[in-house]
């Protein structure tokens, strides 16, 4: 019988085109075990050789100083790279802040690489948020040699996941903005409809005035043309055939003639109209807008005052520095004058000695 042949499959962990992890895993965090060697400040690297040299120098210095490696857990997620100390099973600590060695966001990580001579060594360079200093953090993987390469590729994939996530958010933002604008337009239309002026059409012997009351109290269909009394209407859509809607209340305020007509209870065409007794909501919105504008102006004033104070502090600091520099210059001039007098005395003394010798 022919034996089944075992084929050597390709290891995808070395193929950079194949992603190592699912993108959802980066939202929860991917955990790796490693040994933390040390951290040192480095200048801004310009090439791979400088990074490798800094990595090896840190290893050598910490080895000479006999600083032991610490066991840590490296958590890679969209929030960044967290380095957490590992404790023994008997020494459980629930406060992660006491165990957290460092936390570098993804956008502050400058470079990630592994050592080609020792495949278990890997490092990443991150920029400090407060001092803008580049720090090189060196680690050693505890498992097989490919573990360091997997960690490096995982951090690289975290960059891609964050980039896709930000791109998706930027694409969703304009759509959400349009939706909020349409909702605001609907609210404005409702407010305008509430303040519309309703008129009963011509053909009645007496003019009937319509005001906002309860629709259940009086039925609009039972109204006779010859009876002059007030009818309560709130639902404008149900009596659309008998009611004419005019522009909003704000437009009537802009025209003086229309304002006088409506003040007397008459429309420009001579029909009796009624305006809601409540204050319009647009005035309330305008008051809120004015309050927000006043608050914004106060904040801008505070910012301007703080900037002026900062400029004053800088000016005073520069003035004191200039005064100190002038004092140092004056002191140097005095020292130079003393040296010149001493040199002149020495020259005169030497000339006298030469005269005596001659």
UniProtKB/TrEMBL annotation:
Residue ranges of every copy of the PID domain listed in the record: 29-164
Pfam families with a match to the protein in the record: PID
SUPFAM superfamilies named among the record's database cross-references: PH domain-like (SSF50729)
Keywords carried by this UniProt record: Coiled coil
Gene Ontology molecular functions: nitric-oxide synthase binding
Function: Adapter protein involved in neuronal nitric-oxide (NO) synthesis regulation via its association with nNOS/NOS1. The complex formed with NOS1 and synapsins is necessary for specific NO and synapsin functions at a presynaptic level. Mediates an indirect interaction between NOS1 and RASD1 leading to enhance the ability of NOS1 to activate RASD1. Competes with DLG4 for interaction with NOS1, possibly affecting NOS1 activity by regulating the interaction between NOS1 and DLG4. In kidney podocytes, plays a role in podosomes and filopodia formation through CDC42 activation.
PANTHER family reported for this sequence: CAPON-LIKE PROTEIN (PTHR11232:SF17), PHOSPHOTYROSINE INTERACTION DOMAIN-CONTAINING FAMILY MEMBER (PTHR11232)
UniProt name for this protein: Carboxyl-terminal PDZ ligand of neuronal nitric oxide synthase protein
Origin species: Ciona intestinalis (Transparent sea squirt)
């Amino acid at each position: 019988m022919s034996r089944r042949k075992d084929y050597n499959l390709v290891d995808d962990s070395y193929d950079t085109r194949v992603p190592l992890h699912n993108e959802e895993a980066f939202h929860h965090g991917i955990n790796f075990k490693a040994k933390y060697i040390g951290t040192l400040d480095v200048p801004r690297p310009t090439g791979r050789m400088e990074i490798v040299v800094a990595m090896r120098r840190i290893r050598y210095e910490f080895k000479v100083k006999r600083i032991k490696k610490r066991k840590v857990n490296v958590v890679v997620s969209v929030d960044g790279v967290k380095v957490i100390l590992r404790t023994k099973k008997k020494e459980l600590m629930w406060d992660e802040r006491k165990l957290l060695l460092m936390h570098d966001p993804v956008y502050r990580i400058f470079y990630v690489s592994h050592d080609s001579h020792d495949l278990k060594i890997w490092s990443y360079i991150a920029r400090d948020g407060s001092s803008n200093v580049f720090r090189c953090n060196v680690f050693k993987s505890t498992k097989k040699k490919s573990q360091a390469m997997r960690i490096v590729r995982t951090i690289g994939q975290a960059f891609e996941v964050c980039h896709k996530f930000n791109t998706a958010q930027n694409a969703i933002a304009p759509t959400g903005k349009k939706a909020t604008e349409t909702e605001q337009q609907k609210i404005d239309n409702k407010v305008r409809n509430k303040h519309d002026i309703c008129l009963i059409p011509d053909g009645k012997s007496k003019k009937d005035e319509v005001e906002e009351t309860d629709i259940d109290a009086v039925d609009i269909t039972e109204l006779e043309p010859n009876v002059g009394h007030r009818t309560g209407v709130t639902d404008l859509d149900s009596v659309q055939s008998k009611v004419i809607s005019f522009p909003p209340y704000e437009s009537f305020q802009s025209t003086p003639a229309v304002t006088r007509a409506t003040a007397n209870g008459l429309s420009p065409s001579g029909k009796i109209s009624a305006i809601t007794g409540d204050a319009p909501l647009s005035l309330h919105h305008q008051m809120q807008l004015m309050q927000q504008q006043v608050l914004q102006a106060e904040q801008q004033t505070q910012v301007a005052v703080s900037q002026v104070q900062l400029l004053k502090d800088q000016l005073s600091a520069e003035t004191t520095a200039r005064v100190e520099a002038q004092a140092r210059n004056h002191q140097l001039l005095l020292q130079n004058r003393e040296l010149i007098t001493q040199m002149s005395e020495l020259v005169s003394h030497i000339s006298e000695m030469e005269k005596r010798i001659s």
